[in-house]
Automatic annotation (TrEMBL):
<dbReference type="InterPro" id="IPR029058">
    <property type="entry name" value="AB_hydrolase_fold"/>
</dbReference>
<dbReference type="InterPro" id="IPR011118">
    <property type="entry name" value="Tannase/feruloyl_esterase"/>
</dbReference>
<keyword id="KW-0732">Signal</keyword>
<dbReference type="GO" id="GO:0046872">
    <property type="term" value="F:metal ion binding"/>
</dbReference>
<dbReference type="GO" id="GO:0030600">
    <property type="term" value="F:feruloyl esterase activity"/>
</dbReference>
<comment type="similarity">
    <text>Belongs to the tannase family.</text>
</comment>
<keyword id="KW-0378">Hydrolase</keyword>
<keyword id="KW-0719">Serine esterase</keyword>
<keyword id="KW-1015">Disulfide bond</keyword>
<dbReference type="Pfam" id="PF07519">
    <property type="entry name" value="Tannase"/>
</dbReference>
<keyword id="KW-0479">Metal-binding</keyword>
<keyword id="KW-0106">Calcium</keyword>
<protein>
    <recommendedName>
        <fullName>Carboxylic ester hydrolase</fullName>
        <ecNumber>3.1.1.-</ecNumber>
    </recommendedName>
</protein>
Length: 541
């Protein structure tokens, strides 16, 4: 029963009718599913993550009163996946699924806690294996586990958890939502593509949607800068120098000099200004200037990865991303998100050496498409059932190039236009200037990055609810999604917040609208540059 006309989002409606014990939960489960545990937690209690669960080991603290449940579900080829479910005493009658990260396998109880604070019955799936986010070895010669990770575990967890939720509260969920970033963003878009009935609204941040090309690119891009002894190698400290020069040249393009690059595509960056002069120490170890060979490396890193026939394999970073320690090109070895994928998802085996990388890897990856993880462009079924998607991407993301999201969006548009589907009617996305991967901002930018997106709460303090001081649909992406789905209020922007001290999250340093693509935020020319009201969203097209 939909009661949205009667209620504000804060209204707490549901009452826990069912008992919070294993027998009651088991009775609600379909064949092939069994309870791992079910027990009540009082208000302010801590959920202790089972020691054997290694993917997301952080305990969830100061929870609202809830029933903590975990269920194991049979999947293909004798495999299983598990999920955790928090059923809050003060239920908002709605369902929320949270996403995972990288190759990680495990239930993220901290993110479930963030959802439970809104009153959602909130789940997290373990995706069918136990591992940290950077470990892909579980996938070796186990296509069934890859299939669980790719799509089966999320969908199966959602279906079973909705049944448990309905039985526990003796009422079906009124609305169903998804919130995930990175691999979590990919999982959200994959749901929209494969299982359009699962969600009414999907928040998909920094989606790792092009698994079959992005993972090979992840290995490839690092090789431009390896080995570290090469004369073309750019050490991490020199990337910081390059970043300072990128900001000097590219920040003013957006009309305001504030260390935040809002329009990197509008910048014709010339790294030649950094060339070492005759009197400089012209070695690869100098951190104040770049040599000719290092300039080549820089051009390689900032070029899209193209096939021999000139088709795009994967788009590259946007300018401004180069200053961050997590940059894929800043390490001594390629990131395992690239090499573990090639060894274990593509079956090259543990002995495979990254120096043997070549473009045939991409062809192999396309032919296997492990776990059907890569998301396609046909979202028409999700559109047709009235679903909504809000996506976003940090503009200095050092892991997943920002440009991959506009690429996806533009290709979905290209795919749906012949079907007379207006993408803007159900799928919107916004860029977040100065935000890194899913959360946070470099200290020298201090950009407004917080909007209560997936994984963001724990970057402040996992105990926070919504956007402290601004718990409304203008500032909170989950509340914005609910307003769109339930009340038809179409989001034009989400206001990002930067606190003076994010951990304390009391005083606000600056706020700014994060505009829906292809609009960009423009300073009006007067008023406090740190106030959201001094900015407007402007279309360049
Ligand atoms: C909640 O628990 C914390 C310790 O985790 C404690 O410091 C705090 O006083 C408790 N608050 C309430 C309202 O019980
Ligand atoms: C199914 O999996 C269980 C647990 O991993 C294992 O003990 C059992 O041998 C497997 N059965 C088959 C038929 O592979
Ligand atoms: C992961 O570990 C947990 C805790 O030991 C266990 O219950 C679960 O079965 C494991 N999952 C898989 C897929 O092996
Ligand atoms: C929930 O929805 C299903 C399918 O529409 C329906 O069969 C069932 O009776 C509903 N359950 C409750 C408790 O309303
Ligand atoms: C060159 O190296 C010397 C010794 O390491 C250092 O003192 C000097 O500042 C360097 N010059 C430049 C231009 O970086
Ligand atoms: C840079 O320094 C490292 C460590 O001191 C050294 O091994 C390497 O050869 C140097 N590179 C160049 C190009 O001088
Ligand atoms: C170009 O090469 C890529 C990568 O090998 C391949 O996937 C694609 O089909 C090719 N396109 C054309 C038009 O031949
Ligand atoms: C922010 O506040 C926390 C908690 O009081 C404190 O530990 C930390 O040092 C502060 N950070 C900065 C940059 O001042």
């Amino acid at each position: 029963m939909r009661q949205e006309a009667l209620l504000g989002f804060g209204a707490l409606l549901g009452v826990a009718n069912g008992k919070c014990d294993p027998a009651t939960i088991q009775a609600a489960l379909p064949k092939g599913a069994s309870v791992n545990f079910a027990y009540p937690l009082a208000a302010n209690a801590t959920f202790e993550v089972p020691k054997s669960s290694t993917g997301y080991p952080t305990n969830a603290v100061n929870l609202p009163a809830l029933c903590a449940v975990s269920v194991q579900v049979q999947s293909i080829s004798n495999s299983t996946f598990g999920f955790g479910l928090f059923l809050p005493d003060d239920w908002n009658q709605r369902f929320l699924a949270t996403g995972n990260g990288g190759f990680g396998g495990g239930i993220n109880y901290v993110d479930m806690g963030a959802g439970a604070r809104y009153g959602f019955a909130t789940i997290s799936t373990d995706t069918g294996h136990n591992s940290s986010t950077g470990d892909g070895s579980w996938a070796y010669q186990h296509p069934e586990l890859v299939e669980n990770w790719g799509h089966l575990a999320m969908h199966g967890s959602v279906v079973v958890a909705k049944a448990v939720t309905a039985a526990y509260y003796a009422q079906n969920v009124s609305y169903s939502y998804y919130s995930g970033c990175s691999t979590g963003g990919r999982q959200g878009l994959k749901e929209a593509e494969f299982y359009p009935e699962d969600f009414d609204g999907i928040v998909a941040g920094a989606p790792a949607w092009w698994t079959s090309h992005m993972q090979p690119w992840t290995a490839r891009v690092a090789l431009y800068n390896l080995p570290t002894t090469a004369n073309y190698h750019i050490p991490a400290a020199l990337f910081a120098t390059i970043n300072t020069e990128v900001i000097r040249q590219c920040d003013p393009q957006d009309g305001l000099v504030d260390s935040i690059i809002s329009d990197p595509e509008g910048c014709n960056f010339r790294p030649e200004t950094l060339l070492c002069g005759a009197n400089a120490n012209a070695t690869a170890n100098d951190t104040s200037c770049v040599t000719g060979p290092q300039l080549d490396t820089l051009y390689n890193i900032f070029s899209d990865y193209l096939a021999e026939n000139n088709t795009l394999i994967f788009p590259t970073y946007w300018l401004g991303s180069e200053g961050q320690p997590a940059l894929l090109t800043g390490a001594n070895l390629p990131n395992p998100l690239g090499t573990d994928y090639i060894k274990y998802f593509l079956g090259k085996g543990p002995q495979w050496n990254y120096n043997d990388y070549n473009d045939d890897i991409v062809k192999l990856s396309d032919s296997i498409n492990p776990g059907k993880a890569t998301v396609g462009f046909d979202l028409s079924a999700f559109h047709n059932r009235g679903g909504k998607i809000l996506s976003y991407h940090g503009m200095v993301d050092p892991l997943i190039p920002t440009s991959s999201t506009p690429y996806y969006y533009n290709h979905v548009q290209r795919h749906l236009a012949p079907k007379s589907i207006d993408i803007d009617s159900f799928f919107k996305f916004f860029l977040v200037p100065g935000m890194g991967h899913c959360s946070s901002t470099p200290a020298k930018m201090n950009a407004p990055w917080y909007f209560a997106g997936p994984n963001q709460q724990s970057a402040l303090d996992q105990r926070v609810y919504s956007v402290p001081g601004f718990e409304d649909e203008d500032h909170d992406v989950i509340l914005a999604m609910m307003a769109w789905v339930e009340k038809g209020r179409v989001p034009k922007y989400v206001v990002g917040t930067k606190y003076v001290n994010d951990t304390l999250h009391t005083d606000v340093l600056r706020q700014r609208p994060l505009c829906m693509y292809p609009e960009q935020a423009k300073y009006k020319g007067n008023g406090d540059v740190n106030g959201a009201g001094s900015w407007e969203c402007e279309s360049l097209y």
